[in-house]
Amino acid sequence: MNRTRTWYIMMLGGFLSVVVSQSTAQALGSSAGDKLTRGLANTVQGVLEVPRHINHTTKTQGLLTGMTVGLGKGLGYGVLRTLVGLYEVVTFPIPVPSGYAPIIQPYGWDAAGLWL
Questions:
Q1: 0.85 exceeded by pTM
Q2: 97: cis peptide before it, omega within 30°?
Q3: Are 21 and 37 in contact (CB under 8 A)?
């Protein structure tokens, strides 16, 4: 019961972060508030990189590769996305990079075909 509840909370948090990030997608890199929102979304979405890369690698290269290489890539990208998100949260009032531009692409997983 407790594991199920934790899973639902994690999924709800991921869903809400995607909704928030999609709502600011048109204003990418335009203000400190956008940088803060993007940073919060990246921090929460870091954990979603693992299933994302397992899924994509399995579909393109097979189950064994997906469960090994996909897992490794997901863990690496998950740590990267989380750290970049934390950096953006801490430095949101500072316009670095120029014009509050994103450090990594925070959106477009479906556009890249990684969940399809």
A1: no
A2: yes
A3: yes
